[in-house]
Design brief:
By secondary structure, the chain is an alpha+beta fold. It has helices at about 15-40, 45-70, 70-80, 90-95, 105-120, 120-125, 160-185, 195-210, 210-225, 255-260, 265-285, 320-335, 340-345, 360-365, 370, 385-400, 405-425, 430-440; strands at about 130, 135, 140-145, 150-160, 230, 245-250, 255, 290, 300, 305-310, 315.
Length: about 450
């Protein structure tokens, strides 16, 4: 059994974590302040190169500190890795490393946590409990096990003390978000509302810490996809679950990375790409309930084939007016109805009343290029990097776009969709598939179970 000293632990203690975050905030902030002071005395080329270098150095500092602190801070970094409007692609690539580089915790800590939550140690509860974690993330890790009745399961265990670090980090990180607000305003000349990002992060983090809430999310998705035999949602074992331990059935299948390997038939890749595309838009348009963590480890392809969805800690339930507005916006994009698009921009909070909608209309046509024309389309013809640069240029030129809270995790899910479709290389008529997703939505939709009111 490994010893504690050889295994990463959470940095705890409010003062200690505040000092860690405070030193990072000072380091990052002073770097951008010095850059802003030098701007008037540099050529445009020199300014751009130094800004990129500064972004890269800051990203490396943030990644290094997130590995030490884990918990809420690591979650923040994962969210920052989606901010294409704040950082260039080179920086986002560095920040995204955090999502796949989390070492597991010492097993004795996990064993003690299970005892605290379920009343017995793992070896007393399970016929088999594998000490080595086969998946680790910012808030917890997952172990394989076998129930005494013979069922193979996975046990998700929250790191001891991580809920206390979240409360601390939510307070400490406001300072860091303030730095990024100043960077966006004074250095990048962009609008950046940290308050909505902070509130969205706070709500999602508190939900992810509550495994009972995640179990309820699983039950909700089981109801929503009950009519789709090609989607698998894992069963939960309540007798072996609590607020900080979640036991679910083990599902055997291939991860997306394995399907993308050379030699796998293109027909299987096409099936996955189309299925993933369809269920993502169905969640947005029909359910208003979105699985927002597109990490490749959260999806499996079974041998049937069927698509299994895993890890329901990050689920966004949209208010009905938001779901309806996104559905209306999609119809307007397909019909090139720019008047309705403009109305939706205001309803969704992307524009204020009276703002010129023309720049955002241009952005929609750029982003939805693969589904605009009724023809076969190769997603590899859509250069996401150049499109992102083009959209960012429009944003810099006009400086009118708002970033409502509901946008954060929606963008996260759609970036994942774009990445997978691009990697699978499925050539099909994406326009017709998208139109089918839009047109299938009926007013009599499945009932959603919402535990509390959800902010726009």
């Amino acid at each position: 059994m490994p010893t504690k000293k050889n295994t990463p632990d959470l940095v705890q203690g409010r003062a200690r974590r505040a000092l860690q975050v405070g030193s990072l905030t000072t380091s990052v902030g002073s770097g951008y302040l010095w850059h802003a002071l030098k701007r008037p005395f540099q050529s445009a080329t020199k300014r751009e190169q130094e800004l990129l270098d500064l972004h890269l150095r800051s990203a490396l500092r943030i990644v290094e500190r997130s590995r030490e602190l884990r918990g809420a801070f690591m979650k923040l970094v994962q969210m920052l890795s989606m901010r294409g409007d704040l950082f260039p692609p080179e920086v986002l690539n560095i920040l995204s490393v955090v999502q796949s580089s989390v070492p597991p915790m010492d097993y004795e800590l996990i064993r003690t946590q299970v005892k605290k939550e379920l009343g017995k140690y793992p070896e007393q509860l399970f016929k088999v409990f594998v000490p080595q974690a086969f998946a680790a993330a910012s808030l917890g890790q997952v172990h394989r096990a076998v129930l005494r009745s013979g069922e193979e399961v996975v046990v998700k265990v929250q790191y001891p003390g991580v809920d206390q670090t979240v409360e601390q980090d939510l307070k400490n990180l406001q300072a860091l978000l303030h730095v990024f607000t100043l960077i966006a305003r004074d250095v990048l000349r962009q609008k950046f509302d940290a308050s909505e990002i902070y509130q969205e992060m706070e709500e999602r983090l508190k939900e992810e810490l509550d495994y009972i809430h995640e179990a309820n999310n699983i039950a909700l998705f089981q109801r929503l996809f009950a009519d789709d035999a090609e989607v698998i949602i894992p069963r939960v074992y309540p007798d072996f679950s609590s607020r900080r331990v979640l036991t679910m059935e083990y599902i055997d299948g291939y991860k997306f990375q394995e399907v993308l390997a050379p030699g796998v038939e293109q027909s299987l890749k096409d099936w996955i790409a189309i299925k993933y595309f369809t269920i993502t838009w169905r969640q947005i348009f029909e359910f208003g309930v979105l699985h927002t963590d597109p990490h490749p480890g959260n999806y499996l392809v079974t041998y049937h084939p069927k698509l299994a969805m895993l890890d329901f800690g990050s689920v966004r339930i949209f208010p009905e007016e938001i779901r309806r507005s996104y559905h209306l916006l999609a119809k307007a994009i397909l019909e090139r109805d720019e008047e309705t698009m403009a109305r939706c921009f205001v309803l969704l909070g992307y524009l204020d009343p009276g703002d010129d909608p023309a720049p955002l209309v241009r952005v929609m046509y750029i982003l939805f290029e693969p589904v605009l024309e009724d023809r076969l389309y190769d997603p590899r013809d859509f250069d996401s990097v150049s499109k992102t640069v083009e959209v960012a240029a429009i944003g810099l030129e006009n400086r009118i776009f708002n970033a409502p809270g509901h946008r954060l995790f929606l963008v996260r899910a759609l970036l994942g969709l774009d990445s997978y479709v691009h990697q699978f290389g499925t050539v099909t008529n994406w326009h017709r598939l998208f139109r089918e997703c839009v047109e299938r939505v009926q007013e009599a939709r499945p009932a959603r179970s919402v535990s509390k009111p959800v902010r726009r």
